[in-house]
Amino acid sequence: MIELKQVSKRYQGQAGMFSAVDNVSLTIDDREIFGIIGESGAGKSTLIRFINALEQIDEGEVWVDNERVDHFNKKQLRQHRKDVGMIFQQFNLMNNLTVEDNILLPLSLHHYEDTIAIDELLEFVGLADKRHHYPSQLSGGQKQRVGIARALITKPKILLCDEPTSALDANRTDEIVAVLKRAHQRFGMTIVLVTHELDVIQNLCQRVAIMEAGKVVDVVAIQTNTAFK
Ligand code: ADP
Ligand code: ADP
Question: Domain ABC transporter: where (predicted)?
């Protein structure tokens, strides 16, 4: 379970300090697909990055599986981050590495007890025929599928998705939503997804937090769109 308790984060803005995240409390259950929606600048990216401590909080508490993440030392943090995968709007692939080597990259950085075989993963994201290609030879949808495979290879308990479809057109967006849905069915991780796109929330998420100017103004259960595969 992920718990944010009265979390705030301030930045220096043009007119002085302001709260990018303002006294937010949220609980996200294990295996849930939880969305965070709001306009640009609402604080979504900052909020999601508290979960793997890529962003430090100024006030409040961040708990994951009954451990206080914002008090972790370096060693605990390294261990925690091994349990959290992340995918990004701009994919963040290494352009000088092939598809296969991009996906294997996490394994060269840390030791993981349990991983998914590269062949199985390439098959799972539909890139078996692209394994020796470079990112520049791929479409956006394909690049994001590499990003998803790279995040999945370490079998994370939590998958953070920061605007995963915002650089993609509608068809590629549906394709990525479908891959994330299949990944959730197969691996059963908790997914926390930030987006400004309502259709992504409706097609994928079980609940959504609505953010405005740093605050969560509502948390709503989503009626699953069963027409979507
Ligand atoms: P969202 O993901 O909803 O677009 P962000 O969390 O990226 O929002 O940003 C929230 C607010 O905080 C925005 O006004 C943004 O400009 C500001 N912000 C984000 N990161 C920084 C930073 N490192 N320094 C100063 N301001 C920042
Ligand atoms: P997808 O395969 O994700 O549905 P598209 O329909 O956008 O992707 O692309 C079709 C094909 O065109 C892909 O197999 C891809 O290899 C190629 N392609 C798309 N965009 C680019 C690009 N920017 N550079 C090189 N090849 C591309």
Answer: 2-229
Residue nearest to atom 8 of ligand 2 (CA): 139
Q: Whose CA is nearest to atom 12 of ligand 2?
A: 139
Cβ-based neighbours of 8, under 8 Å, separated by 6 or more: 19, 21, 22, 23, 24, 57, 58, 59, 60
| Whole-number Cα distances in Å, 100 to 1, 47, 94, 104, 152 | 32, 31, 11, 6, 13
pLDDT digits over 116-146, tens only?
999 999 999 999 999 999 999 999 999 999 9
Q: Which ligand is nearest to the CA of 16?
A: 1
- Ligand 1 centroid – CA 168 distance (Å): 22
Task: Kindly indicate whether the ipTM for this predicted assembly is greater than 0.95, answering yes or no.
Answer: no
Asked whether 18 lines ligand 1 (CB < 6 A), one says no
